[in-house]
Design goal:
This protein is an alpha/beta fold. It starts with a strand and ends in a 5-residue tail after the last helix. The protein is globular and about 65 Å long. It has a domain at 2-50 and 70-239 and 321-338: Alpha-Beta Barrel (TIM Barrel). The chain has helices spanning 24-32, 77-88, 111-135, 170-186, 202-213, 272-288, 292-295, 308-317, 326-331, 335-338; strands at residues 2-4, 7-9, 13-15, 39-40, 57-59, 65-68, 102-106, 149-154, 191-196, 217-218, 227-228, 231-236, 240-243, 264-268, 298-302, 321-324. The strands form 4 sheets. The protein has an 8-stranded parallel β-sheet. The chain has 10 helices and 16 strands. The protein binds flavin mononucleotide. The site of flavin mononucleotide has 28 residues, from strand 6, strand 14 and helix 9.
Length: 343
C-alpha cells in the first residue's frame, strides 16, 4: 500500500488519465477491477471540451505504442462529480463499501476558472463527508469517502491548438500552482498532484523541483522542523507532443498520416525510456532535497508500462505507484491483471 496524503493506493497500480476513462461505465469498470488500487478520470474542463473527428488515436503496428490527438474530455467537470459521488456512495461489484481513491484530473486555461473547479471538488468532498456522517458504521470500518478524492492538475496536454502545455513555461504554470496551493493551505486534507510532461534535459527537472519547493511552509506546532507542501504527488509523464506517424506504420494506407491533425502525442513503449528518465530524475532530486515535504512527494510512473517488466522498471526508477493508458486502450481493463501476473 502507498499512502499519498489522505489516499491509500493498494495495489499501487492504476490507469492514467485517458480517453478510456471518459464516461460513467468506463469509470465503473475500472473502479470495480480488483487489480486497480485507484482510478484516474479523463481530464475534465469546467464546461467540457469541443471534441470532433480530428481528435482520435492510432496504435503502432506493434500495438504497444500509441499516438493521439485528443484534447480533454467532452464531459464537463459536473458530470465527473456526479459519477464519482455515485461510485463512492454505493457498494462496489463485490458488495464492499468503496475504499479505492479516485484521482479527478482537471485543467483550465484560466486560473480563475481553475479556482471554480477546485471549489466544486471541495463541495463534492463536503457532500461525501455528510454522506459518511449520515451512514457511518465505524464498527465495520467504512472509509470516509471524502478522503478518497485527489485532484490531478493536467499541466501537460500537448494537443491543444494555440495553447502550449503550461508545465513547459513557468510563467503560464505558476498562477495554476498558486490556486492549488491556496486551496491546500485552507484544507490540508486535500490531496493534490501534477501531471507533468516529459522533460528533455536535467536542468528542467531542477527548475520544477525548485519551483515546487517555493510552496513549502513550516508545519504549525513543529518548531519549524517539519514542513508542508501542497503537492503530494507528480505523475510522470504525459505523452510526448509533436510526433508524427504515417498510416502505413499503423496498419493503414501508405500515402496518408496516422492522425488527421497529423501531429499528436506519443505514448506506450516508444515513450518508455524517456518516462523512466523523468521518473528517475525527479525521484533522485526529491530524495536529495533538504525540505522533508519535498522528500515526501510521491511519483506515479507512467509511460510505456505495457508488461510486468516495464512496471518493475518504473518502480526501480523511483515510482511508488505505476499507471498506464496505452495498454488500457489495447487490452481493456484486463490490462491491470496482465501487469500483475508476476506477483
Ligand atoms: C488516447 C489517450 C488519451 C489521453 N488523454 C489524457 C488526458 O485526458 N489527460 C491526461 O493527463 N493524459 C492523457 N493521456 C496521457 C496518458 O495519461 C499517459 O500519460 C501517456 O499516454 C503515457 O502513458 P502510456 O505509455 O501508458 O500510454 C492520454 C493518452 C492517450 C493514449
Amino acid at each position: 500500500m502507498v499512502k499519498i496524503n489522505t489516499i491509500d493506493i493498494d495495489p499501487p497500480l492504476l490507469n492514467s488519465s485517458c480517453a478510456w476513462a471518459s464516461d460513467k461505465a468506463q469509470l465503473r469498470e475500472l473502479y470495480d477491477s480488483p487489480y486497480t488500487g485507484a482510478i484516474t478520470t479523463r481530464t475534465a474542463t469546467l464546461n467540457g471540451f469541443g471534441q470532433d473527428e480530428t481528435h482520435t488515436v492510432a496504435f503502432f503496428e506493434s500495438k504497444t505504442t500509441s499516438i493521439n490527438s485528443y484534447g480533454y474530455s467532452p464531459h464537463p467537470l459536473r458530470s465527473y462529480i456526479s459519477w464519482v459521488y455515485d461510485l463512492l456512495t454505493n457498494p462496489t461489484a463485490s458488495g464492499a463499501w468503496p475504499a479505492k481513491p479516485v484521482l479527478i484530473s482537471i485543467t483550465s486555461s484560466s486560473s480563475t476558472v481553475l479556482q471554480e473547479m477546485v471549489v466544486e471538488i471541495e463541495e463534492l468532498r463536503n457532500r461525501l463527508h455528510q454522506f459518511h456522517l449520515a451512514h457511518s458504521r465505524p464498527a465495520v470500518g467504512i472509509v470516509n469517502p471524502a478522503t478518497l478524492i485527489a485532484i490531478e492538475l493536467n499541466t501537460s496536454c500537448p494537443n491543444i491548438k494555440d495553447l502550449p502545455p503550461p508545465a513547459y513555461n513557468f510563467s503560464f504554470l505558476v498562477p495554476f500552482l498558486d490556486v492549488l496551493a491556496s486551496a491546500y493551505y485552507s484544507d490540508p486534507s486535500l490531496t493534490i498532484g501534477l501531471k507533468l510532461p516529459p522533460y528533455l534535459y536535467y536542468t528542467r527537472f531542477q527548475d520544477v523541483v525548485r519551483r515546487l519547493a517555493t510552496y513549502s511552509r513550516p508545519k504549525p506546532d513543529s518548531d519549524g522542523v517539519e514542513t508542508l507542501n501542497p503537492f503530494a504527488f507528480v505523475t510522470c509523464t504525459n505523452t510526448l507532443g509533436s510526433c508524427l506517424l504515417f498510416a502505413d506504420q499503423t496498419g493503414g494506407g501508405a500515402d496518408s498520416f496516422a492522425l488527421p491533425t497529423p501531429l499528436g502525442g506519443l505514448g506506450g513503449e516508444a515513450l518508455h525510456p524517456l518516462a523512466l528518465g523523468n521518473v528517475y530524475s525527479f525521484s533522485k532530486l526529491f530524495a536529495e532535497h533538504q525540505d522533508p515535504a519535498i522528500r515526501r512527494i510521491a511519483i506515479i510512473g507512467v509511460g510505456g508500462v505495457t508488461s510486468c517488466e516495464a512496471r518493475q522498471r518504473m518502480t526501480r526508477a523511483g515510482a511508488s505507484v505505476v499507471a498506464c493508458a496505452t495498454l488500457l486502450g489495447q487490452q481493456g481493463v484486463k490490462a491491470f491483471e496482465l501487469l500483475t501476473k508476476d506477483e
